Amino acid sequence: MKFHQGRICCLKYGRWLLTALTLLCIARIFIIYSTLSKITSKQKSPSWLNYLPPESGLHLGDRGARNPREIDLADLDHVELKKKPEGGGVVVKQNVGTYDSNGSESHEHQLFQEMRSSYLPQPSFDFQSWSRRNETAYLFLHVGKAAGSTIYCMLTLPRIDENLEQNFWCPGLMDKAKETKRKNPIPPLYSQKYGQRLHMTKITHMELKYPYDVFLVGLRNPLSRFLSAYEYEKKIGNKWVQKTYPIFKRCFPNSVSAQNFLLNLGGNEANTVDHRMNMTSYCRKIAVDVTKGLVSSYKSHMTYNYQFYEDQFLTAINSTNEHIVSAGHVVAIRSEHLNEDFKNLEIFLRNGEVAVVPNNAKQDTITNIAMNVHKNGTLESILPNPLRVLCRVLCKEIQAYKRFLFRAENLNEEMIIDSIQNLKKYCPMETIKVQEVCEEISSLT
User: Fold this and answer.
1) pLDDT digits (tens, 9 = 90+) for 150-199
2) Measured between alpha carbons, how far is 340 from 412 in angstroms, rounded to an integer?
3) If DSSP codes are grouped into helix, strand and coil, which group holds residue 234?
4) What dihedral angle (degrees, nearest 10) is formed by the CA atoms of 431, 433, 436, 441?
5) Where exactly are the structural domains of the chain?
6) How far apart are CA 348 and CA 355, in angstroms?
7) Distance of alpha carbon 33 from alpha carbon 23, whole angstroms
8) What is the pTM of this model?
9) Pair 196, 183: CB distance under 8 Å
10) Please, which of 61, 158, 202, 443 could form a disulfide with 285 given CB 3.0 to 4.6 Å?
């Protein structure tokens, strides 16, 4: 009897023990799974600020201070840093693959290096030391219809400075930016270096506040930028632009599409389907002059083009103004790659090295708020022949765009080639080389 009771007792407690061990195993499996999930999630979408190596004591004076932040060095595995070559200079990526189906990589690479060296100032510049000095700032060359307003908001919003007219340029974003700043008091370094903005005015008309030896420029495919400017300035709400050159509206009413305008620009009357346009040679010449940005009285983004801002840049670096350092170093943000280029610029200023940031990297909140990426959707809707006409008329503008690309010290070879290949898609005659002479076109009749 006692033996039977003891057996029952052993079986009873044995079941409890087995149940307890089973639950313990399940709990350990859950803990391991949760840990692995966090690691995997972190690897898939790391915060782009975590790409930056640990800093300590970085002080930006009156423009704000950066608190030390713990950085997980494992996240640096997601960024490909390009080490500086011996003797300094700009960091470029060497192996970028074949640039076109017919050319050789070595030839294209050599040509790239020739163009690059032609437009980079010497001696090389220490951006890392520059970014840590309190008295330094960059001048923003705000090229219209190249994501300029978006870039401006991304540059300035973390600072929340009413003197920057952010309520006007960044409507609806101020409250969100203030909330973001409260949650994350570490603003990106590039925003702390914003000095002033040059937009649709000559640099000689500005009162410069900082010693500018660095210029930041927003870039966009010149064809896409032109079409965006044309459509923007044909809107009813932009009559102030139209009033500065009324003859343009009389030749080309607001209802004329960009494609029909380009057909008329080419002087091909047989292909022109919009009879609301004036088909005289006089209006055709006006179309060419406006497209080329030659009508100074027309306060249009077509007038204030890359050539205009390049002239202001060259005027600045060749001036005797005490606020301009003669070398003139350029960094750029491409509107087709806003997210990646901003992250690249942040890393470049802190490390002095170009980083290849993964396209799927997680955006910070401010970038998410201000992001308004400009794709080439407008170009896709235009027929090839009108686009080729636009390529011919904008030849000098395209060369100015390429010169800015080669000057941009935060862009490596792969990034610059990508932008030129995007241009070549619509302008097959364009190559890596900057053309010294363009065909003179007064009217294409």
Assistant:
1) 888 888 776 656 566 665 667 656 566 666 655 555 556 777 788 999 99
2) 13
3) coil
4) 10
5) 2-44, 61-223+302-424
6) 7
7) 15
8) 0.74
9) no
10) 443
